[in-house]
Amino acid sequence: MTANTGRTLAVREKGKINLGSWLILFLTAALFVFLALTRKNFYTYSNIHSILYEVSFSFFAAVGFTLLIIMGELDLSVGSLFGLGGALMGLFIFNHRLPVEAAIPLAMALAAVIGFAAGLLVTAFRLNSMMVTIGVMMAVKGYNWIQIQKFGGRQIPRAQWNFITVELFGVKWTILAMLATALLFEIFLAGSRHLKQLYYIGDNFSTTILYGLNANLVKVLCFTVSAALSAFGGALMTCRLKHPHVTVGANLEIGVITAAVIGGASIFGGRGSMFRTMLGVFFVFLLQNGMTSYDINSYVQQIILGSILILAIYLDVRINGKRT
Amino acid sequence: MTAAVDEFLKISGITKTYGVVKALADVSFSIRRGEIHTVMGENGAGKSTLMKIIGGETAPDSGAIELEGRRIRTFVPAAAHDLGIHMVHQELAVFENLTVAENIFPYHNFRKAGWIDYASLHREARSKLDLFGLKTIRPEEPLGSVALAGQQMVEILRCIVAEPKIIILDEPTSGLNDREADLLLGILKRLKDEGLTIIYISHRFKEIMRISDRITVLRDGEFVATLENTPELSESELINNMVGRDLSASLYRIKTVSGAAPDAPTLLEVRGLAKKSSLNPTDLKLAAGEIVGVFGLEGSGVGKLSRMMYGLEGKDEGELFIKGRRFAKINPRIMAAERVMYLNNNRKIAGLLPEMPVTDNLSLPVLKRFSRFLGFLDFRRIGRLATDFIKAFAIALPSLSTRPANLSGGNQQKVMLSICLVPEPEIVIVNEPTRGIDVGAKTEIHRFLLDIASKGVGIVIFSSELPELMSLSDRILVMRDNSVVGEVGAGDYTEQTLMRYAAVGSAATGGE
Ligand SMILES: Nc1ncnc2c1ncn2[C@@H]1O[C@H](COP(=O)(O)OP(=O)(O)O)[C@@H](O)[C@H]1O
Ligand SMILES: [Mg+2]
Predict the structure, then answer these.
(1) pTM of the model
(2) Best residue in A208, A211, A214, A218 for a mutation probing chain B (most B CBs within 10 Å)
(3) What topology does CATH give the domain A20-320?
């Protein structure tokens, strides 16, 4: 009986391909090669570097998102919290005359409070995370607009944004920070119990509760981290633009979900990788860059990105969906 | 002619299996036109499954159902409705957000110029409610705000307005108090007098013997007997039919002496654990090396007790002592920290990480023990631990990275038991440890439980299978109506005694 069960199992295990882990590498490589072959100015150091530079800011909105989607929670507020980072930069630097090294941590702390509150609503009050964070998204976005309009396009002084241009070995430091962050999270997700338990919580929340894990606390912490890191990314992005702008973080959540899901995360929880999410963000930016270089109208780009998101979710449901 | 009346609904040779579980095995009997026919049996006897087949919710593997001599071929609820068979489920299927009236007439046609004619809808609902004497329920209020008993009545009303030939009620009274149950029984009697045929499932002996014309008993998925409810019919006879297994020929060895040492220290004590309208103050003591069984029929409070004593469900009152230390607050985190583990009764809902490798499953409750600098896990030691447990529990695995989702029920159950034993607990609460698994795995799990008890672990076992309890437990507590009503020690076990406590609340037989 044992041998028999064993054999059928091995077959079943093999039959289930883990599409998620290879898909993103393949897609990114294919798109990269395609653009390199068809576009004259694509495959130059400065172009690739500038794409990565853009990616490095948005990536920080995807970090907490990935941690949360692994636990089966969706955080759609990352885009507007990214924007909040910028709005608060303006507030602290223009109105309170704080230096940037104080403004960024403060902006992150304020965003963290919002993330914490959202986390509480999701865990203690058992509200649906998608709905709660859509609410947060709307409210924060409203606040961002009000604030940023008041600044009327005022520029941040050079002394405050100058640090963003620092390069190490000819590479912008934010790119290196992104790579280091992704690597660090990847290592901890794979090997450390603090982050590995996210997969367990995502696979079966009730089981982790039953065996004594404080799954709710973990969720609240991740919502907090997600908000703080999103604000961090937005603050850096604002420094790069030299002034707070309402387009910072606009629709970013859509790019981030797409990135995470084609990076192998599942909206059902239990799957996801920080490194592959990073590749996913790179892929989305590469695609946008490529479409622009082909003179594709930005509204058409939206249609294409939306379709890719739907396709990614469709594949996710087909591959990872709960079989009934 | 009489045949047509006697065999109004004819059930012949119905068999239904779920995986390794034979929910129904070759069940045959008939329902008379216009009778109240009660179906009895322990939890898991197959009652609900049979009702679902008659109600067209699931198809049998083999066998036939004939209504008035015509064989039913499609098993979908709509087909059953067309034939006039309606069912009130054990789990209520009402629409809480709709009003009472809309629940009674879900497919109503009260319209005026395209608009819903609420006036006549409510008027009609009012008259139906009055018919049942349900004066306090208003047609226009949302059903969610009506008490459980009222919801139950509304669901019955919904069946009645469809003018059925047969209605099926699966344990309608298990959530009702005596007065509400009385009201329901009165209504059933009336419906019967109007010619309706009623199939009724209940665990309450008194009401069964009051309203039934005939009683069919199922046991372990098999038909036992159909009895006429004459004045001579006694509770004992029913109980004997419900249990009455030939245990001498079974795989169970009934315990005759307690395995626990008389001077063993108390590990766990529950004092006055209670919750309004679901558990009356309950005490329980567990000594080292002892196995205490808890038995009860559905709705008796066993489920509540098992969940509340581990903090899976809130309590109103009561406290817990673990080796003399008092805990007023109970939650799984505290319990796990005190090395009290819980084997869940439904492994599909909680107890396993179905899509994670078995190694991750096994290390789940002891992650701290295996973490080093910065929480990094020692995968080599986890692998060794997993290998040990897989060997000790004879779990059939192709590899350590296999996920429980791909295992058979028996192996899943063994993985789950292993997870509970990895922290080397001193106290284990097991809830239905062998539900839905094959006989081989079942006996193995029994052996493991007896083995850890002999090493000093205290076990509280909740089970709806009497033979299982009788072969494992050193003593058995029996629950009824949310209270412990009796305790039987090893040596005095008979299915009849235990079932009698569970059914009528006392051990005394009719003559005494
Ligand atoms: N959908 C299902 N899947 C697997 N097993 C089931 C299912 N429904 C019932 N069973 C099993 O069939 C047996 C009979 O169950 P049921 O008909 O609900 O019993 P009863 O209503 O008499 O308590 C039980 O062992 C139960 O676990
Ligand atoms: Mg049932």
Answers:
(1) 0.83
(2) A211
(3) ABC transporter involved in vitamin B12 uptake, BtuC (1.10.3470)
